[in-house]
Amino acid sequence: MENILWKLLAFILAVVLMFLAPIVTFYDRVDLISYNNVYSATNEFADISRELGVINKSNYNKFISTLNATGLTYDIEFEHLQKVYYPRFDDSGNPTGSVEVRYEGTYGEDIGEQVLSGGYVMESGDILYVQVSNSSNTVGEVLKSRLLGLSIPKKTIFVKGGGLVHNTGVKGDNE
What we know:
Structural class: alpha+beta
Strand order of the largest sheet: 3-2-5-6
Number of domains: 1
Distance between the termini: 75 Å
Shape: elongated
C-alpha cells in the first residue's frame, strides 16, 4: 500500500514537471517579450519627443498602437519639467545680475489633452518623462495566481523613459 502511494506521488510530480513547468516558463517569456516591447516603445517615443521638442499626435498614436499590440492595457503618465529663470536679489531687494534656474512641472491629463488637440510644445533644456505601467494582468500573472494561489500585483510591467529636451518644438503634426 505504501509503495502505491509513492508511485502515485511520483506520477503527480512527473506530470507537474513535464506539463505545468514548461507552460509557466512559456508564459513568463511572453510577459518578458511584452515588457521588452513596452520598454523599447516608451524609450523610442520619449527620445523622438525630446528630439523634436514636441509631443505630437501622430507619434503618440504610433506609441499607443505599439503598446496595444501586446494585448494589455496600460496607464501612461507624462511629466514635463519646464526650465524657469528667476532673477536673484540681494538683501536690500536690488537685482544681483544672476539668475536662479528652477523647474516647474506639468503632469498627466494637462499634457494628454494638448497632445490630442495638436501637440504639446516643449523648450530646449526642459525635462520630459514618460512612465508606462500595465493596468491589466498579464497571461503569466493570471496563470501563476490560479496555479499557485498567489495574489500578484497588477503593475509588473513598469517602464520610465525620458530626459533632457534637445530642441524647442513647433506646434503641429510633424510627420
